[in-house]
Amino acid sequence: MGKIILTGDRPTGRLHIGHYAGSLKRRVELQNSGEYEKTYIMIADAQALTDNADNPEKVRQNIIEVALDYLACGLDPEKSTLFIQSQISELCELTFYYMDLVTVSRLQRNPTVKAEIQMRNFETSIPVGFFTYPISQAADITAFKATTVPVGEDQLPMIEQTREIVRKFNTVYDEVLVEPDALLPENQACMRLPGTDGKAKMSKSIGNCIYLSDSADEVRKKVMGMYTDPLHLQVSDPGHLEGNTVFIYLDAFCRQEHFERYLPEYAGLDELKAHYQRGGLGDVKVKKFLNNVLQEELEPVRSRRKEYEKDIPAIYDILKKGSGEAREVAAQTLSDVKRAMKINYF
Ligand code: ATP
Ligand code: MG
Predict the structure, then answer these.
(1) Which atom of ligand 1 is nearest to the CA of 116?
(2) Is there a contact between 85 and 78 (Cβ–Cβ < 8 Å)?
(3) Where are the domains of the chain?
(4) Which of 42, 165, 229, 329 yields a CA-CA distance of 20 to 30 A from 84?
(5) What's a GO cellular component annotated to this UniProt protein (predicted)?
């Protein structure tokens, strides 16, 4: 059987360079590699509602923003199925059955859920839907019999939880579901890109982001205001690389050819880092270089996005077509699941 990709994003905001480094860029490469039988890309609006119940308009509006970001990055509706989660009601049914295979304490132990509950200050008022979203994520992945889920590091516990559900289902009922593997970025710096504040991971819900749709000027301002090394006060001071956001971004985005174009006096990133650590290299110079690197990467994305923005109804057509295709596949899996559970009575 061929390999199948399923991955997606919550429409809680426009996509940022953390998504790009952690998942989006890879998706486009995989889509174009020809190694996968199918690629499904889901806009997880139902999941976004689990912690945005009082703000459905935000989720609604961001569906189109996320779709524009996808297309701008090179996801191609001719090659990948782009769809909206809430339109596939079979996913709710699968979730309901999988809920019987997971305990409350197992969910409470899920490190991502724990961290996200803390980040959102839910304390004891956690919506049940949010608490159980790893189960619905298992439904999303298994509905498409996905073998491969390209994600950032924060999603690893989700994939593990899915694998457990699959094993349990296949043991209790029948070998129907496929155990997926996470596909992490190869570059360590892309696993969990920090925000421009250097504190948490770059996240739409925190707002410490450089968005793919930011103008050149916005990107430059954000880069020049980025967190670096608080001990590097004067150019002559030795600088530190650990936790230094500007260098983490360079690890994630810069390539050898950028040096040839923008900093020919350095042979490469190792030499730049060594100079910074030694002292005598100012933050401003490094930030200007990072700005050039990011502008070069983001400019084509930005201009493609502007083109797609001209015809929004065409974007909805793409999502409608994709959702129709996705629904057929999910319905087949649901039917297999019900047969295995022997709840196909008639
Ligand atoms: P939210 O704050 O609403 O959860 P988010 O910014 O965390 O939004 P998601 O939609 O939850 O984004 O994540 C979509 C995908 O992008 C996931 O695969 C996730 O691992 C990846 N991702 C998100 N943030 C980062 C980051 N800072 N670095 C690397 N990958 C990331
Ligand atoms: Mg998230």
Answers:
(1) 4
(2) no
(3) 3-192+311-340, 216-306
(4) 165
(5) cytoplasm
